[in-house]
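User: Before I run my own analysis I want an independent prediction to cross-check against. Here's the chain; please return only the structure tokens and, at the end, one sentence I can use as a sanity check.
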Amino acid sequence: MERVPNLTRADALAAARNPLAFIAARWTPTPRTVQRAALSALVMSVIIVVTGGAVRLTGSGLGCPTWPTCTADSLTTTQAMGVHGVIEFSNRMLTYVLCAAVGWAIIAARSEKPYRRSLTRLGWAQFWIVMSNAILGGIVVLVGLNPYTVAAHFLLSCGLIAVAAVMWQRTREGDGEPRHLVGRPVQQLVWFLVVASVLLIAVGTVVTGAGPHAGDSKEVDRIPIDWETVAKLHAVLAWIVVTLTFALWFILKAVDAPKGPLARTRELFLVLLAQGVIGYVQYFTHLPEVLVGLHMLGSAVIWIWVLRVLLALRERPAAEAELPGQAYEATSASIAGPR
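Assistant: Structure tokens:
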């Protein structure tokens, strides 16, 4: 059994000054470990969206009536606040789990050899989005679940999912120059698909802000618009996304495109069909909470798969080997400053 070296005073100072560099100098994760760390951050970003939806659908949005504490006198929920307080406070605690997942992704990316600055930046981008959204979530509570702030809270969560999805993809690629696998017209079609998907999600937040699930059992302001009219616009945009996806799949088949883009497009089409079924059933059954929650999960999955289609249009091989004098060395000098 290998003896663990003693921690010297210099090591302790180095760890205090730059803990990430200190860990990177002493640990090299496998590529699979880095991939799993990035995937855990992506999964948690989806879970936090679903649990946030559960808070709204159970009328627990103001279960903790203030922020950052749960009540004016208590950091945590109290027995008098009942199940709504437990649900809201539990969702707040999941933010720490999300932070842990993002932190693990950052540490794994920072410790990978050779060092890849792009991965670390994507990890830190997630961290700052989480922090910003936590503050925005507090504002949502303080303004009594104003529907516009609730919509912004969800859209920022979608931004987090996007960055996490890109990081997960990048862990399975190299840092070489990207090589396009399809022609420019197909790339433009996919970008139309991405824009249509963004509009679909944005209009979905308007449906939520005007619809019957306000997020709390008390009187909560709603967006002053007929939610059924907006829901029909949402359905039209959904059909546009489905049509663009089917057209993309047909074109990729016709031009005998590589397996990656074709498989991701086929998967997206199937996910869209499942989401469409859920959407129409929930509309005609007057928005039961369980189906609305499944629809929110479907929205997150669709967004991930749209991005996977976009990222599948190119491949990035490993970068050329560094010159011997440029190789990254995990020595004490490597922990002199942050990367």
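Sanity check: The first strand starts at residue 179 and ends at 180.
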